[in-house]
């Protein structure tokens, strides 16, 4: 994947992803190009570790840290699910009604997702490989 640096923020950069037209013309599109498109036909903006001291306007190639997908899925899906199940068990142990247990579980799930979003707000598994 490639991106263009929009902002430098401490040891991270904010960049807009784009399709590498030269590579796409030789090998065809890999599918990431279509995945990057949004409703207004712009590509996504992400944050990556600035491992090569890129400056605003630089075109850079991105890498993804090892096991990043697994770590992200665990943090975003499995942890809230486990906390949700524990909350249901605790509510059931307190002999609350089914609807009260569900309400407690859903509230706990919402609080867990909000906490994950706050804690991992600037977390990134992307890093810069090289650039122009």
UniProtKB/TrEMBL annotation:
UniProt keyword annotations, A-Z = Membrane, Transmembrane, Transmembrane helix
Q: Which residues cross the membrane?
A: 73-91, 97-116
Q: Which Pfam families match?
A: RseC_MucC
Which InterPro entries has this protein been placed in? Answer: SigmaE_reg_RseC_MucC (IPR007359)
* Keyword Zinc attached: no
PANTHER family tied to this protein: PROTEIN RSEC (PTHR35867)
Q: Can you say what this protein is called? A: Positive regulator of sigma E, RseC/MucC
Provenance organism: Chloroherpeton thalassium (strain ATCC 35110 / GB-78)
């Amino acid at each position: 994947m490639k991106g263009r640096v929009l902002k430098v923020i401490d040891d991270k950069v904010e960049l807009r992803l784009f399709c590498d037209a030269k590579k796409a013309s030789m090998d065809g599109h890999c599918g990431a190009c279509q995945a990057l498109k949004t409703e207004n036909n712009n590509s996504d903006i992400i944050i990556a570790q600035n491992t090569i001291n890129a400056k605003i306007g630089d075109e850079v190639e991105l890498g993804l840290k090892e096991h990043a997908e697994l770590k992200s899925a665990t943090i975003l899906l499995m942890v809230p699910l486990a906390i949700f199940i524990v909350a249901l068990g605790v509510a059931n142990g307190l002999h609350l009604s089914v609807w009260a247990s569900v309400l407690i579980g859903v509230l706990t799930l919402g609080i867990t997702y909000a906490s994950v979003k706050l804690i991992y707000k600037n977390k990134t598994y992307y890093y810069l490989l090289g650039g122009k």
